[in-house]
Amino acid sequence: MYKKLEKIVISHLMIILFWGLLFKNKMLVEEDSILNAVSLILVFALYGLIYTEISNKNILGIFSILVIFTSLLPLSLILINGLPYKFLFALISIGSTSLFIKKYLVLENIKYINILPISRKSTQIFTIGLVFFIFVLIYLFDIDTVMINIFTQIIFLITEFFFILFLKEKELAFERTFKLYYLSDYMASERDEFARIIHDDILQDIFTSKNYLSSKNPDIEYSKKILTSLEKKARNIMKFYQSSLFEKANLETSLSAIFDNVSSLYPNKNIKITKLIDSDLTEDKKLIRLISIILKELINNVYKHSDAKYLNYKLYKKGNFVIIEMDSDGASPADYNKINESKRGVLLLKLLIDSNAGNISYGLNKDILSTKVCLEVERDENYFVG
């Protein structure tokens, strides 16, 4: 949300600087009434734009930029001494601001908005106190109209700036809370998934072999066959969930183990794997573990959610980044949308990559899903940020 207000604050700053430039070059309008009117209209215009932008999240960026030009630019031009049609420029500014507010302001959201990060009662007290303080300064120091208006605009600009910082901190706190919520939700779903695997793939086989052995004529050989298959299946599940496998092996061994373990969980899928691993990559254990965890999640998603026939991946170093590129077929637009809107596995993968100074991006070309992961590496001798 705070990013929507940055353009308004920057525009306000530019108007103040333009005001100062005109004053410095003796081109500023001399009539006190015009200065006071422009200053007052500017404050109300900024208030209106800020409240409208915050109350409505569905305003297109082009309209937000357009209203700045049609609302704030005419007010700036009025300040030029000798410029004709000042009244017309004022009407354009007021009309543009009013139309924007009328079209996009969501009235029921106004009561939740306060440009000062304090209570409404405190805001009222602060405003009254500030107005009284300004009048005292004018009386004691005999401040002229230009200076008092500039002083007022600077105070309002500082208020806008702190409001943006306040919103930024609030949004970051909300984002962290949001991510922690989905992290706990994802962990709960993973436990449910693991419980389902235990029931469907292990307990069922145990129950079946138990029945065969408990019958009057037990089929021992067939029970052995079931239990042997069960042992293999249990080992594959154990390897898939055992992250400590990444801690001791080198990179190529870890990646080969990941492909073997993931593919063993999907015996009905036959995906052709092509890989290219840069031989100059570091053998740093921390880096190996992180790459292995990321690739394990990416590869599992391909097996689990697509009808892929092939999977290509490249792992190499470019400058201060380790790059993972992966392509696979069998993806649909619905799969791509699920990735972008995911609040579970993909979201947690993004969290992991972000926390290690990296980024991940996806692309879809027909049915080919491409994934690119960049992980930043420090300049110091292959030391990995983690």
Number of strands: 5
Question: In sequence order, what are the helices and strands, one letter per element?
Answer: HHHHHHHHEHEEHHEE
Helix run count:
11
Sequence stretches where pLDDT stays below 50 over 5 or more residues? 379-386
Structural class, from helix and strand content?
alpha+beta
| Portion of residues within helices | 55-70%
Coarse shape: elongated
The overall pLDDT average reads 80
Distance between the termini: 30 Å
- CA gyration radius, whole angstroms: 32 Å
Query: Quick one: biggest sheet?
Result: 5 strands, mixed
Task: Please give the domain count.
Answer: 2
Beta-strand content estimate? 5-15%
Strand order of the largest sheet: 1-2-3-5-4
Transmembrane segments: 5-22, 34-52, 59-81, 87-105, 125-141, 147-167
Protein name: Histidine kinase
GO molecular function: kinase activity
Keywords: Kinase, Membrane, Transferase, Transmembrane, Transmembrane helix
Structural write-up:
This protein is an alpha+beta fold. The chain has two domains: 1-176, no CATH class; 249-380, Histidine kinase-like ATPase, C-terminal domain (Heat Shock Protein 90). It is built from eleven helices and five strands. The chain has helices at residues 2-24, 32-55, 61-78, 86-104, 120-141, 145-214, 220-241, 251-264, 285-305, 333-341, 345-354, and strands at 272-277, 310-318, 321-328, 358-365, 368-376. Strands 1-2-3-5-4 form a five-stranded mixed beta sheet, covered by helices on one side. A hairpin with a 2-residue loop joins strand 2 (310-318) and strand 3 (321-328). Helix 2 (32-55) runs parallel beside helix 4 and helix 7 crosses helix 8. The protein is elongated and about 110 Å long. The two termini are 30 Å apart. Mean pLDDT is 80; it is low at 379-386.
